Amino acid sequence: xxxxxxxxxxxxxxxxxxxxxxxxxxxxxxxxxxxxxxxxxxxxxxxxxxxxxxxxxxxxxxxxxxxxxxxxxxxxxxxxxxxxxxxxxxxxxxxxxxxxxxxxxxxxxxxxxxxxxxxxxxxxxxxxxxxxxxxxxxxxxxxxxxxxxxxxxxxxxxxxxxxxxxxxxxxxxxxxxxxxxxxxxxxxxxxxxxxxxxxxxxxxxxxxxxxxxxxxxxxxxxxxxxxxxxxxxxxxxxxxxxxxxxxxxxxxxxxxxxxxxxxxxxxxxxxxxxxxxxxxxxxxxxxxxxxxxxxxxxxxxxxxxxxxx
Length: 309
Description:
Number of helices: 7
Mean pLDDT: 87
Largest sheet: 8 strands, mixed
Radius of gyration: 20 Å
Structural class: alpha+beta
Oligomer: single chain
Strand order of the largest sheet: 1-2-3-8-7-6-5-4
């Protein structure tokens, strides 16, 4: 470890990992959002250790391209290396890469090289940790998903959707918080789903663009609601193929890895088998929340009217 770096221990959804990082980069990028997930060292080994390196000259040679895709508001490009590892380039729109990531074949040792502005380094570091977390936990019945989650009376309600649906997700969940008593926001951007003893649970994460998560918590998953913009409001049960496609498109997936994508399919299948799934066509209005909450069995103390809107 670089003598100028610090070793920090984190745990998300019960999965531990370590971060080796210079203090100045930590402060300017992720320190506040990761605080609720920092833990004391234990005897249990981390699933992976991510080290922020000074440069990428020690990375092995690239021998082929795996895939390139848009994620969030940036681009992720993956390459094979000569020693069967993976190199990943992360970049913001119309910009050169701001982050270079190398994961060895075990996915336990991750090297990261950051460049650019604090915004670019924050984007690169956050996404490199998310990718490393995905590599390490997918075989432990755990997936990352673009989704907002509200919690009410110890149960979690998942609103999945790719980034084009982020605005409607956040608006809908904000209305839940305002008008449903004892309702809190678990996540507004990226959520962890983990299957524990055959049952799905939702976990808070530090990966939220517009609001820092202030606690490291989890709730059992009660229902999944696909949101759709419309000029009217209607909620219907969603078929298994429909919710399967929605979840698959929203999950952080490694489609080039057959083993990992197979595990992810199994996790999604558990969700479609055991959880109520719905489609809400909505107008981003408070009446959408009343309709959705009634369908899900969540009751507000009094009906929503213009007088208490």
